[in-house]
Write a structure and sequence with these properties.
It contains six helices and seven strands; from the N terminus they run βαβαβαβαβαββα. The protein is of the alpha/beta class and about 180 residues long.
Length: about 180
């Protein structure tokens, strides 16, 4: 089993440059959620020169939309959404200064090249583990687009959020390398 790498935000390009596909990390600190609707609004702001809702410099975006919070909980269930739906926004978010994305599933063929070009990463979270992931979220605050409900941008403080490096800054892809190992 791989050694688990402990990482704390804020991260830098130097921090993530050392990561390799397949590395398992436990992330503690601040990340932001954003899904389809929020990305579309960010794109409109980008295209019109309007101010972005948050400063994306050196941030990680978690492709997730938490369910409403139940009494006595920090937040509702939360799990990654299919990342490929945000692929058309990846270059824009890298240009805004984002360090990386957290989600699930494969990415379009151009995303690894963008990770290489901008020195960013794609981190894999576990789909179907929403209750476990919500236990790792210690605070959750809506910071933009409140009218979008579960798709609003939220600032999460996470503790030991377990992730796997899916695409590293060299453009290597975890799924591609793993599948190749088992082909005969």
């Amino acid at each position: 089993m791989n050694t688990i790498i402990q990482m704390h935000t804020p991260l830098t390009k130097e921090d993530i440059k050392e990561l390799n596909v397949g590395d398992v990390i436990e992330l503690t600190g601040t990340i932001f959620t954003a899904r389809d609707a929020a990305h579309k609004r960010m794109q409109t702001a980008w295209e019109t020169g309007a101010e972005q809702p948050i400063d994306f410099k050196d941030q990680l975006i978690f492709y997730a939309g938490p369910c409403p919070t139940k009494p006595g909980r920090t937040m509702g269930s939360i799990a990654p959404t299919t990342s490929m739906r945000m692929d058309s926004f990846v270059e824009m978010t890298f240009q805004l200064g984002m360090l990386g994305m957290i989600g699930k599933g494969d990415r379009s063929d151009f995303v690894p090249e963008l990770c290489k070009k901008y020195g960013g990463v794609y981190l894999l979270s576990i789909g179907g583990a929403s209750a476990m992931i919500s236990d790792q979220v210690k605070t959750c605050d809506v910071v933009a687009y409140d009218d979008l409900g579960t798709e609003s941008i939220k600032r999460l403080k996470v503790e030991k959020l377990r992730l796997i490096v899916g695409i590293d800054t060299k453009g290597r892809v975890f799924q591609t390398e793993q599948v190749a190992q088992y082909k005969r």
